[in-house]
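cron nightly-structures :: item 1 of 1
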Amino acid sequence: MLELISVAAFSHSKSIEKTNEDAILLPLRKGNGYVFAIADGVGSYQGANYASKLAIEFFARIHKIPEQDSVEKVLLELKDKLHELENTDKEFYQAATTLTLGFIEESGLHIIHVGDSRLYLKNEHKLIKYTKDHTQHQKLLDAGLYTERQLKKMPGKNILTTALSTRINLEYQYIFLSSEDIVDENKELVVNIMSDGAYDFWEKRPKFSINTMNNPMAFSASLQKRIEKSGPIDDYSLVSAKFRIFK
């Protein structure tokens, strides 16, 4: 049995003068599970906010969340929808978005990921990142050319190597995590999805109290306060959800 215990979220633009190019999907019941996601429109292109909203609406309306053998087919359908967006305004011909999505059911958590938002699972007092950034920095790390410490001093952290766009070849990450491997001793699980404008502030000081980490509402409020106290550097979004999985 799967139970949604608690959920909290925020999504705000970098400043009141600018459009928020992030879009979020709060946990939505789909069949025997819940789907939730963040899409971050690629801001260097026209129509970024429309692209991110389209991606979220696509998965909010989809009848069945894809599993491993059908992920590519569904993401290609989403790319076709982005092509339709281009037809509404020729300025949107390069519109692109990232997408990080979780679908949880009794058997476990499915993750679909394109771009540089991140999905974390709480493990005791820490957050463990399960997605891999599709960025130039990550490519250099994978090639063994630099260490994380060396890359911190180099530009290019936010340069994407892929995104959902009609102009870019499809690349994605799919992961399935079995429920028995991710629930705690209380059969509970806390999932956090963050856009880069949120996790940049988390990673600088990845620590809150255990009670805050266990409570999506407290975690959301604390992270938002941290971001706004320091001053946002990008649009910033979080979806935090706590589930119980038991048989």
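cron nightly-structures :: done
The chain has one domain: 2-133+173-245.
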